TrEMBL record:
InterPro entries, per the entry: DUF2969
Organism (species): Lentilactobacillus curieae
Name of the protein in question: DUF2969 domain-containing protein
Pfam family, one: DUF2969
Amino acid sequence: MSKAKEINVDINDTKNSQGQPISELLVGKKVIGNIRQLEDKKFEVVNLDKDVFHVKSFDEGVTTLIRHFNLHH
C-alpha cells in the first residue's frame, strides 16, 4: 500500500476571458482547473480535460479537482 503524499494546493483568484471572476487551483506551478460561482449555492468546476462539473460549494469544487488530478496524474 502506498503512502499518502502531501500536496500543496494554491488558489489564485483571477478573471476568465469573458471577464468573469474565477478561482484557479494550482498544484505546484501547474493549473489543474478552475471554479466559477454561478449562483449562491451553485459552482461550475472545469478541469484540464475541459470536463465540466456542477457542485454546491466551493470546497466541493476544490475536492472534485484534486480528486480528478490524483486519479489521472
